[in-house]
């Protein structure tokens, strides 16, 4: 009974948080979500020569194609972020940012690095949620797609976004025998399962936001490393990519799990 009281109190706290922040939370979520694209686009500008030379050396594609790759990343990411933040043609911006993720996955050989590949998929999950948020029921780029029962393409986007987001947390699991690691793995696994299946979704997602934010600030504190060291750029990239996943989770908190979830099915029971 005490466990039920604690859960009820936690849900009441989460609901109170949502009531206070409901006007601002979607804006904060979008800003966090596009932060990694914004940071990477700016980095392309300030590290133009280094990025161009890296692509040219890696793929032996010549100076012109390498410069074109960097320019495409710069314009695609900065332009997509501007459209998302201005809420103008968000669906096309999301498609463009999906393309950037796919392009970088191939260009930087992320496909063969399981950790970074899963994090890129998690980032794609955040974009799916953003696409779902921006999609109106009446008019969208998916208009005409038949729905099944009470479900709609938007709700399947929310399901896909939730499932992809939890891949970020799978990269944080620690495989050692210490008590703290075992406890962290058990709690983290329980939370990501709740988000994936859509049960107690807002509370679980908000808890994951707090957990991931603490981990991000502690482990990816790039501001503590001198800018001339390679570790600075590595931690900075990791920090903003994690911040984008936090943005996706905040969208889950703001929007709810959608129709394809246990929370929604409970209403029918």
Descriptive notes:
The protein has 269 residues and is mainly alpha-helical. The chain contains 13 helices and no strands. It has helices at 2-21, 25-33, 35-46, 48-59, 62-86, 90-107, 114-134, 153-165, 167-170, 179-197, 201-219, 230-255, 262-266. Helix 7 packs antiparallel against helix 8 (153-165) and helix 7 runs parallel beside helix 12. It is globular, with a radius of gyration of 20 Å.
Keywords:
13 helices; 269 residues; 75% helix; mainly alpha
Brief sketch in words of this structure:
The protein has 269 residues and is an all-alpha fold.
Shape type: globular
Mean of residue pLDDT values? 83
Query: Distance N terminus to C terminus?
Result: 22 Å
Helical amount among residues, as a percent range? Answer: over 70%
The SSE string, one letter per element, is HHHHHHHHHHHHH
The count of helical stretches stands at 13
Number of strands: 0
Topology:
Blueprint (H helix, E strand, L loop, with lengths): L1 H20 L3 H9 L1 H12 L1 H12 L2 H25 L3 H18 L6 H21 L18 H13 L1 H4 L8 H19 L3 H19 L10 H26 L6 H5 L3
Helix pairs in contact: 2-12, 3-5, 3-12, 4-5, 5-6, 6-7, 7-8, 7-12, 8-12, 10-11, 11-12
